[in-house]
């Protein structure tokens, strides 16, 4: 009987701590106002709509983030391996100018958008952001195929992209 109780407690704690893999974005994320490199406002929903029918790799990053910068060479490899995917870079930089300098300095290729309220802001909270870089994949139907990895060479990321080819 003791073993059953211990096993039950273990199972409950394991599933209680497991992170839910989201398959769609919360309305707060979709309605979040960002800006493009042209300084024009755009919602996250509009960004996704622009890329409808495509596999989208989202990289949440910042030019001040050393882990983000270290991971850029791996992102470049992904871009070479998956040329048909759209790469969206959502920055948490503190200022518009710092963000533009970071894009150029680190030669980040793809679509770029800036979130103005940081990791703890509306967008960050709506995607449960706890660390950057953060990678997500959206399939061609607009469904989130991969919700959370923090390494650009993570096996889950590679397998997800391979499955969406």
Keyword list:
single chain; 165 residues; alpha/beta; 7 strands; 41% helix; globular
Brief rundown of the structure:
With 165 residues, the protein is α/β, with parallel strands linked by helices. The chain has helices at 2-17, 27-31, 44-50, 66-81, 96-105, 122-126, 155-163, and strands at 33-36, 41-43, 56-61, 86-91, 111-114, 134-138, 144-149. Helix content is 41%, strand content 21%.
Question: How would you characterize the overall build of this protein?
Answer:
This protein is α/β, with parallel strands linked by helices and 165 residues long. It has a single domain, classed as 3-Layer(aba) Sandwich (Glutaredoxin). It has seven helices and seven strands; from the N terminus they run H-H-E-E-H-E-H-E-H-E-H-E-E-H. The chain has a seven-stranded mixed sheet with strand order 2-1-5-4-3-6-7. About 9% of the residues have low confidence.
- Rg value: 17 Å
N/C terminus separation: 50 Å
Low-confidence stretches: 5-19
Under CATH, the topology can be stated as: Glutaredoxin
State the order of secondary-structure elements, H for helix, E for strand.
Answer: HHEEHEHEHEHEEH
Order of strands across the main sheet: 2-1-5-4-3-6-7
The CATH C-level name is Alpha Beta
Based on helices, strands and strand pairing, what is the structural class?
Answer: alpha/beta
SS summary, helix count: 7
Helix content: 40-55%
- Average pLDDT metric: 89
The shape is globular
Q: CATH superfamily, called what?
A: Glutaredoxin
**Biggest sheet architecture:** 7 strands, mixed
Protein name: Thioredoxin-like domain-containing protein
Pfam families: Thioredoxin_8 (PF13905)
InterPro entries: Thioredoxin-like_fold, Thioredoxin-like_sf, Thioredoxin_domain, Thioredoxin_ResA/DsbE_sf
Organism: Flavobacterium ardleyense
């Amino acid at each position: 009987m003791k073993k059953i109780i211990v096993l039950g407690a273990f199972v409950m704690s394991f599933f209680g701590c497991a992170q839910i893999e989201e398959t769609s974005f919360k309305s707060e994320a979709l309605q979040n106002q960002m800006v493009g490199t042209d300084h024009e406002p755009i919602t996250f929903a509009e960004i996704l709509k622009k890329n409808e029918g495509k596999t989208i790799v989202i990289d949440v990053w910042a030019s001040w983030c050393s882990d983000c910068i270290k991971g850029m060479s791996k992102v470049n490899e992904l871009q070479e391996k998956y040329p048909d995917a759209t790469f969206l870079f959502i920055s948490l930089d503190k200022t518009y100018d710092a963000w533009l300098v970071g894009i150029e300095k680190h030669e980040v290729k793809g679509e770029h958008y800036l979130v103005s309220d940081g990791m703890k802001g509306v967008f960050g909270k709506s995607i449960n952001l706890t660390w950057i870089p953060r990678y997500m994949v959206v399939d061609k139907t607009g469904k989130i195929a991969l919700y959370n990895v923090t390494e650009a060479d993570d096996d889950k990321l590679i397998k997800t992209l391979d499955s969406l080819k």
